[in-house]
Amino acid sequence: MTKNLFKYVKKFLPLIGIIILVLLVISLDVEKIKNAFLSIKPIYIVLALSLTFPMVLIRNYGWQLLLKEQKIKIGYFLSLKIFLIGFFYCSITPGYIGHVVRIPYLKEETGEPYGKLFVNTVIDSVLRAISQYLMILTGAILVIGTFPELFWVNIIIFVIFVLMLFYLFKKERGEKLFHIFIKYLIPRKLRDNFYRFVNTFYFDFPRVTRLVFPFLLSLITCIIVFTQVYIIVIALGVNIPYHIFILLFPLANVVGFIPITLAGIGTRELTSVLIFSTLFTVTKEEVLVFTLVGFILTDIFTGFIGFLVSLTEAREKEFIPT
């Protein structure tokens, strides 16, 4: 009974976001949504898309710094290809977990152990998460009079998150905790494989001081992405100050990380509507439009580039003689 229930939940979980989005659209004025979409001039779309390329190049450079710190030897353009392929899978998976697709590609190119490559991917994602949470906390201070609970909830989450990282960054503590999980949660016949996987987590583990610059680059790329969305805000003639938008929109983006929808669809739009229609004289229809269009111009567009790169990768492998 439980197994069958889990299968059904697993099967329909990705549809939750679509359902939320459909219900949100139905609850609004569809004609206003259509008019808002049509009011966006193509020049704004082109301008927003043009920022994708520096964002991708900077983000890949930050990843390169992390790879070098962990002694994972791979060239800039090869890591760029792997990054884009990973981004494609991020754009179609719940909670953006598609980044783990990088790991088998890195394994094939470098021969490094899976545990070490897994940690590399996790740390890269953690740096981006910290960047967004710092922006969210700053934004929460700006609106603490309207949403006082927003600040305290995020403070608690951030503190717990930092304490977990502090605990896990120490090899002795981290390995001990992982071994306990394996001993009590993993079936006996699979434990040896998991022990081997975990025992490579701390191979060439990066120094915290060497993560500062990659973190700053991650912060810059976050600002670029949210600026792309803000360009659509301008295109709609919506009066939201840039510095406030850039600090509040990350909250809606982070909600999209909850692994119940494909790439945050539905939850991100609903959160945006609740925040911006409450704080500013902007219609819910306009908020929905700039959030959706922003998602298409950032995640979907970059993911589509990654899709094209993945097709090229597959085609190249077909011509490799065996």
Which radius of gyration do the C-alpha atoms yield? 21 Å
Number of strands: 0
H/E series, N to C?
A: HHHHHHHHHHHHHHH
- What is the mean predicted local confidence, pLDDT? 86
Model description:
This protein is mainly α and 322 residues long. The protein has one domain. 76% of the residues lie in helices and 0% in strands.
Task: List the defining traits of the structure above.
globular, 322 residues, single chain, mainly alpha
Set down the secondary structure blueprint.
Blueprint: H1 2-12, H2 15-27, H3 30-38, H4 42-50, H5 52-69, H6 76-90, H7 102-110, H8 114-142, H9 148-168, H10 171-185, H11 188-198, H12 212-235, H13 242-255, H14 267-279, H15 284-318
Helix pairs in contact: 3-15, 4-12, 5-6, 5-12, 6-15, 7-8, 8-9, 8-12, 8-13, 10-11, 12-13, 12-15, 13-14, 14-15
Summarize the structure.
With about 325 residues, the protein is mainly α.
